[in-house]
Amino acid sequence: MRPYNTMRFEFPALSVNEAFARTAVAAFLMQLDPTVEELSDVKTAVSEAVTNCIVHAYPEQAGLVYISAGLCRDGRVIIRVRDKGCGIPDVEKAMEPLYTTGDADVRSGLGFSVMQSLMERVRVRSKAGGPTTVTLERRIAGKGERSDGI
Amino acid sequence: MLVPKKGMIALPYRILAETEDVLSIGLFGEIDHHTAAPMREGIDAEALRRLPRLLILDFAGVTFMDSSGIGLVMGRCRLLETFGGRVELENVPAPLKKVMRLAGLERLVRISQRRETHETV
After folding, report:
1. Which of A63, A83, A93, B62 is least enclosed, having the fewest CB within 10 Å?
2. What is the pLDDT of residues B78-94, one digit of tens each?
3. Measuring CA to CA, which residue among B43, B31, B35 is closest to residue B67?
């Protein structure tokens, strides 16, 4: 299904941009009149995906993070978080709860688990040395009783 | 006791109460990978100075949290354990409690939800 409305933006993979990224996505979703919980869930999932790019994708020099979002007529929101960084050699392993290659005293290893719990669908496309795309998808019912999501 | 401000930016934590055994620290703002670092350093400095039996982290002033907050709490639990203390969380807003619950944090620390209910968006 083709989205009827889309947006995209990019920014350097700096931790100071994490709040900007999730807030920008949340602002785009406001047209769906989301509930507080729906908005909080999406912001949290986006924050996890963006943090992954910032912590892992560019070990040498901070590259760019690319975010796009689309709204579908059936009420689904599709959000893509991409980087052109070092890639994930073993996606299955990376998605295991509590697994982290970061400092285990600081990083909980729960990023993908949180994304999977808060979104209906999470897809990861990556390979070692190549770009990574995380696609987050879920339905936003909104506060009203509409059924078409518009 | 008020913690002095660093430049123009208010610190993301403040000591709310302290007795010989209990240290209560309030956290403020959004907890993500970027903001967790200064919070972590501040909490650890205060905790190591006082070595409380109980460290209460008050989340009433926290408006957003991702899994960086889970890491923050788990790390403080480990730190307190090193000198026989423990951590409790107070006034946790519902959306944050959801993230904590799905991370299984309730098995590690006592979590009390925020009493007053007001919308924060």
Report:
1. A93
2. 999 999 999 999 999 99
3. B31
Q: Read off the pTM.
A: 0.90
Could you tell me the CATH number of the domain that includes residue B87? 3.30.750.24
What's the total number of domains in chain B? 1
Does B2 reside within a domain?
A: no
Domain boundaries, chain A: 5-139
Rounded CA gap, A77 and A11, in Å? 21
Q: Which of A110, A112, A115, A122 to mutate to test the interface with B (most CBs of B within 10 A)?
A: A110
- Classify residue B80: in a domain, yes or no: yes
CATH number for the domain formed by residue range(s) A5-139: 3.30.565.10
Residue numbers in B near A41 (CB within 8 A): 95, 98
Tell me the pLDDT band of B44, cut-offs 50, 70 and 90.
Answer: very high
Q: Do B103 and A15 touch (CB under 8 A)?
A: no
Nearest residue in B to A40, CA atom: B95
Give the domain range for residue B31. 13-113
Show the tokens assigned to A32.
């769906």
In angstroms, rounded to a whole number, what is the distance separating the alpha carbons of residues A105 and A133? 27
Q: Are A51 and A134 in contact (CB under 8 A)?
A: no
pLDDT at B121: 43
